[in-house]
Amino acid sequence: MFERIHQMIVKEFAQVFRDKRMVLMILAAPVIQLLMFGYVVTTDVTNVRTALYDLDKSQSSRELARSLVASGYFEIVSTPESPEEIRYLLDKGEVSCAIQINRNFEKDMLKGLPSPIQIIADGTDSNTAMITVSYAARIAARFGLDTSKVALINHERLPGVDARTRIWYNPDLKSRNYNLPGVIASIVMIVGLMLTSMAVVRERETGTIEQLMVTPIRPFELILGKTIPFAAIGYFDMMLVTVTGVFWFDVPIKGFLPLLFLCTGIYLLSVLGIGLFISTISRTQQQAMMAAMFFYMPALLLSGFVFPIDNMPPVFQYITYINPLRYFLVIIRGIFLKGIGFSLLWPQMAALLALGITIIALSTARFRKRLE
Amino acid sequence: MSENGIAVEVKDLRRTFGSFVAVDDISLRVEKGEIFGFLGPNGAGKSTTIRMLCGLLSPTSGGGSVAGFDILRESESIKKSIGYMSQRFSLYDDLTIEENINFFSGIYNVPRQKRAERKDWILSISGLHERKEELTRNLPTGFKQRLALGCAVLHDPSILFLDEPTSGVDPMSRRNFWKLIYDMAGRGTTVFVTTHYMDEADYCGRLALIYRGRIIAEGTPAVLRHRFMKQDVLEIPVDRPVEALEALEKEGIESSIFGSTLHVVVEDADAAVPRIERILSAGSIKAGKIEKILPSLEDVFVSLIESS
What we know:
The structure holds two protein chains of two kinds. Chain A is mostly helical. Chain A is 67% helix and 6% strand. Chain A folds into two domains: 2-41 and 174-366, no CATH class; 48-151, 3-Layer(aba) Sandwich (abc type-2 transporter like fold), CATH 3.40.1710.10. Chain A is built from 14 helices and four strands. A four-stranded mixed beta sheet of chain A has the order 2-1-3-4, sandwiched between helices. The model of chain A has no long low-confidence stretch (mean pLDDT 86). The longest helix of chain B is centred in the middle third of the chain and has 16 residues, at 171-186. Chain B starts with 5 loop residues before the first strand and ends with a helix. In chain B, 37% of the residues lie in helices and 27% in strands. Chain B contains eleven helices and 14 strands. Chain B has two domains: 6-226, Rossmann fold (3-Layer(aba) Sandwich), CATH 3.40.50; 230-307, 2-Layer Sandwich (Alpha-Beta Plaits), CATH 3.30.70. In chain B, helix 3 (97-107) runs parallel beside helix 5 (141-152) and helix 4 (112-126) runs antiparallel to helix 5. Classes of the chains: A mainly alpha, B alpha/beta. Chain A binds chain B through residues 3-4, 6-8, 10-11, 14-15, 18-19, 206-208, 210-218, 369-372, and chain B through 51, 54-58, 75-76, 79-80, 82, 84, 86, 88-95, 99, 102-104, 106-109, 135, 152.
């Protein structure tokens, strides 16, 4: 039994490493993907190109403009002289935000009257627009508060709520820190899916499966022989992208690494199980590739990687329960960013384990040593 | 292996694919140590039968035994005592010759101390000693075939199933291949071989002719020639075979072309010869001496198909 599994493993590795495209897919593709995601996929909003329409031209309005720039979020690239000009700049896409400071801004403020400013954002990119507006509003509010404090310094204390916010786990709100663990999880998924789903189908296509089936090899020996090498490769890729992420992008790992290692194993169980399942329902490598992509895309969308699960319609929220990526994302983000451990992550681990065992059992059951 | 000297025995074996009947209630028996030929055109049901015997396909109905094990319930035990070589080359193209041999040695659990000796044997029968580190995909077909045969018998099976082992192989390699099969049979291995090459049938000890899923004749090559061929076969050397065939056909005489000769199947040679000579000379076709010949298995097969 061990001899047969051992021979399968030796054979799979020999085949994988002989195929140059496979080697590239294992070594280069994950790193390239990680680098690309790391640089490109960022939802951070900085240096927003801004038009400042200053009608007041007072010391206060200039100070407000200065604090906008000083925040690092805004870059004033244009100072239009009319509302029409603002429209033109936004239409053309030269700026994605325009701030209008009305006449008498300083005078009203000093009198303690409300002194509104107008913030216009380009809503075609809704996410950036929302963040831009909230940044601008926050800066303006603080500016107002500071100025009033100065004005009221000799009077009694200002009543009101002073909200002091603090961001935990990722204090700089770097979207990269949040995204990279997800990228790692999705890379491990696509590599594992592709390799496993191809591995069995290729044998079916070339006819070697028939030769294997007349040997005394048992289905579980064949399944193990097919999964162990790809689990090893999955682990290797996991470490490769993690190390790249940590050393290249300075993504912190706050949690316990061995736990991450263990959870990766449980995660690979279901990823490889799905790959095997795909290969039991596909006849050609093309079909397997299509099926793998057909699984991967929704799995990515319904994982909480990009779009929060809580915002999804209930039906889709239920579907996410059979998505291994959903659980692993919670685990990997928890370990990377929060440093939490088994006591908090065990429900995800249990769900992932159950999912993995089910899908492996399902594909082993579907895998018969018969041709149909 | 069963006690009674029977290697393969099936009764009313049937396999359908949807409404298509691939194998139609066939029964056959193969003795130990025989070379049993399963002869028939493409699509007659040869491969389907062999796959059922090897436990690769479940029969729709019927049953039987291979090496004394039931083909329905004990297919895993069967797999330990048989070797199988399919019509498609089914070793790993992207492994070297040596890696393929090592892999199948391990899968078949060949004892470690015997592996080197078996590997050496395969390399010598396939003539690949110098090329064992080459990728299998670069080998010519004849070499691949012998290597595949070697890998199929690594574990010294008592029965060897060969499904069109020589398709697409040149005549010289085919002859070498059959020599190997003879050697194995000589050492007591039962060989069950399918082919659509009629000339190969003479290599077999016993034959079954299969056509459209049914066995239409069975016996040794000699028996088949005599018993199933009640008519006479005439060989006519002609200068223009195609025109000769057409001329005879117009008169209701069936014939087939063999190189520059025609084979004509007739009920009574003495009566037919003058008639054929008349037809040919009327068509001004030059014919040599018409002779009654021993029918080839191909003649037998064609006449059996026509009468069925």
